[in-house]
Amino acid sequence: MATNEEKTNQQFQQVIVDCRSLFEKKLHDYGASWRILRPQSLTDQLFIKAKRIRSLEIKKESLVGEGIKPEFMALINYGIVGLIQLSNGFADTVDISVERALELYDQYAQEALELMKRKNHDYDEAWRGMRVSSYTDFILTKIERVKEIEDLEGNTLVSEGIDANYMDIINYAVFGVIKLSEREEADRG
Q: What is the mean pLDDT of residues 110-118?
């Protein structure tokens, strides 16, 4: 029988498999067009996705027809894109192959998993007792922190960097997908 941490690890990995599949399909359709995004534009894209989640949580209605779970998945993928952009800088044209983009995706997804494992061990599965709306608020807070760090041009006094905030955004979004998936399963069962 799997421990809670093992269950979380398996669920996390499944969410990443699903997000990577979507990422790969979008790479097929658009290539790595996101390579042209400057840091501030990427932050604004994360902001748009997180604000939409919060709006849907409050209004309880989507006029576009897409729900909250796909937006959390988008946050995961854009968070990984953010880590890639931080590492490689932005470009004026698409400058990496689909294969290289997927290699980088896998690298940063694995780093996010390893961070989640360490934090989940220390926090003892506390995320399971949280509300999905709290993940949304924490993600929005992380995005505001990134905006401030960008405005300060990275000259912070005591704060973690943008990369740490992207990692936390990814992990909170994964928790959101897990919780929503569990809710869907319970509703079907």
A: 92
Sign of CA dihedral 140, 110, 72, 97: positive
The amino acid sitting at 143 is: I
Q: Which residues contact 143 (CB under 8 A, 6 or more apart)?
A: 43, 46, 47, 50, 165, 169
Q: What number is the average pLDDT over the span 34-53?
A: 96
Query: What burial letters (b/e) apply to 38-71, b meaning 16+ CB within 10 Å?
Result: ebeebbebbbebbebbbebeeeeeeeeeeebbeb
Nearest to 170 by CA among 87, 125, 85, 113: 113
Residue 161 φ/ψ region, left for φ over 0, alpha for ψ in the -120 to 50 degree band, beta for the rest: beta
Residue that wins the pLDDT comparison between 3 and 48:
48
The HSE-up count of residue 44 (CA atoms within 13 Å, CB side) is 5
Given this model, what pLDDT does residue 176 score?
97
